[in-house]
Amino acid sequence: MRHFGHIAPEVRKRLFYREPCTFTPDSPARLLSAALGATLYSPATRPRLADDVLKQAGRGVVSMVLCLEDSIDDADVGPGEENLVRQFTALAGLPDADLPLLFIRVRVPEQIPDLVRRLGPAARLLSGFVLPKFTEERGIPFLEALTTAEAESDRRLFAMPVLESPELLYRESRVETLEGIFRAIDKYRDRVLALRLGVTDFCSSYGLRRGPDMTAYDVQIVASVIADVVNMLGRADGTGFTVTGPVWEYFRVQERMFKPQLRQSPFLEVQAADLREKLIEHAMDGLLREISLDHANGLLGKTCIHPSHVLPVHALSVVSHEEFSDAQDILRPERGGGGVLRSAYTNKMNEVKPHRAWAERTLLRAEVFGVANEDIGFVELLAAGLPG
Questions:
Q1: What is the pLDDT of residue 282?
Q2: What's the CATH superfamily of 22-318?
Q3: Fewer CB within 10 Å, N- or C-terminus of the chain?
Q4: Using one digit for the tens of pLDDT, what is the confidence trace for 251-294?
Q5: How far apart are CA 86 and CA 189, in angstroms?
């Protein structure tokens, strides 16, 4: 699989200075954690789930979570598990199918080894599990169950803990909770692919819900949690983990309070005014702003609950030619001693030592999402990726 692999080769050649790399479920964890992109959630109870997975893969989705937790009723857990086994078995019978990375979101630790056993040979399609309401106390049993399932199936399985518990939100317990989470995931570092933020649960603790004109960063109590999670768990010193962006809840806006947040000029320059109107109509201007703020705050990838959110996440994850040029200059071997240099675009200062970690992360993102050609922006990437 590869990002933008659903686009015709001749179009990719026009868009990319360096095309996204290909990867498989067996690729190194460091590459996969950066490549998750827009992780699309789907209830495990959907009767045509296998068809849905194939359909979304054909539209550019490279990671999916099949959910047995909050997205389904308590009474549907048993039928949901049975449906997952049937749907995985159906997918396993399609040897040439190009499938995304598949994860199952469970409720309790015991489900992990039980589902792997019930999946049998079809477990080869499973990349891992999403672990809800993760803290040190609640998370360790999930990670132990994952280890058991790995040993029994002789297959590498990843964990993606969801950080969404009230203890993490409340100021008086936040630091202690984060320290405990770090102890748990550090012990199982080789199996923790990424950390996911449960911002909807954070808001629910205070009876809040952000509107389509608001990003997660406009809700200060949520923004403070994101900042502390990145501060303690997302460091670039070798101790950190990939932290993914929060879910965007909206598909379509009937009435707006604030002006649209998308500037007209980038769309007018490429005769894409209709695309701008469509994005605004479907609340995508808020999503695009939030994705940009995710990146600015150290997050990569995003939880998605609607297929229309996938392309914006991927389009804004592509590295610009200017970013790529700066990153390469900073990491040149002869710059090992540090120093300051003017960027090749002559519009900024690149300071070698302080910007090194940024440059390394940028080149990893460039590997999985590609580098845009010099004259290509996110509007062209969005337009090219839309279904015919």
A1: 56
A2: Phosphoenolpyruvate-binding domains (3.20.20.60)
A3: C
A4: 765 554 555 555 555 655 554 566 666 565 556 778 888 999 99
A5: 32
What token pair was written down for 35?
A: 């490549």
Q: What is the pTM of this model?
A: 0.91
Q: Are 44 and 82 in contact (CB under 8 A)?
A: no
The residue written with tokens 């909807």 in the block is 200
CA–CA distance, 125 with 197 (Å, rounded to integer)? 25
Place of tokens 């992780």: 39
Asked if residue 247 lies in contact with residue 199, where contact means CB atoms within 8 angstroms, the answer is: yes
Give domain limits for the chain: 22-318, 322-369
> Which of 91, 39, 96 has its CA nearest to residue 66?
39
Contact of 50 with 90, CB cutoff 8 Å: yes
Q: What angle do CA 36, 84, 302 make, to 5 degrees?
A: 20
- The number of beta carbons lying within 10 Å of the beta carbon of residue 385 is 20
CA distance 211 to 248: 10
| Helices 111-119/136-153 angle, 10° precision | 20
In DSSP terms, which residues pair with 63 in a beta bridge?
A: 39, 101
- Give the residue among 202, 196, 233, 254 at the shortest CA–CA distance from 67: 196
